[in-house]
Backbone:
């Protein structure tokens, strides 16, 4: 399978509850107020989706992340 160029990341956020995710060969729990950035070219899935889980996922273009990080590096922290 041909690898696509990376043009976005998937941002997953848990508002409340716990979600079990498999990312490649790694298992991860996403709990209250946790978030994950996932390369969409890596096979990933949610293994549990309890009724009590509330969260969302969005695709964030790499260009937006680069813009944010460039500004963050140029801005002094103090």
Residues:
């Amino acid at each position: 399978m041909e690898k696509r160029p990376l043009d976005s990341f998937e941002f997953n956020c848990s508002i409340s509850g716990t979600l079990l995710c498999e990312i490649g060969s790694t298992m991860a729990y996403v709990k209250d107020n946790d978030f994950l950035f996932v390369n969409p070219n890596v096979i990933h899935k949610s293994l549990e989706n309890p009724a009590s889980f509330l969260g969302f996922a969005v695709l964030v273009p790499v260009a937006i992340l680069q813009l944010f990080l460039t500004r963050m590096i140029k801005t002094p922290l103090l």
About this structure: The first strand starts at residue 8 and ends at 16.
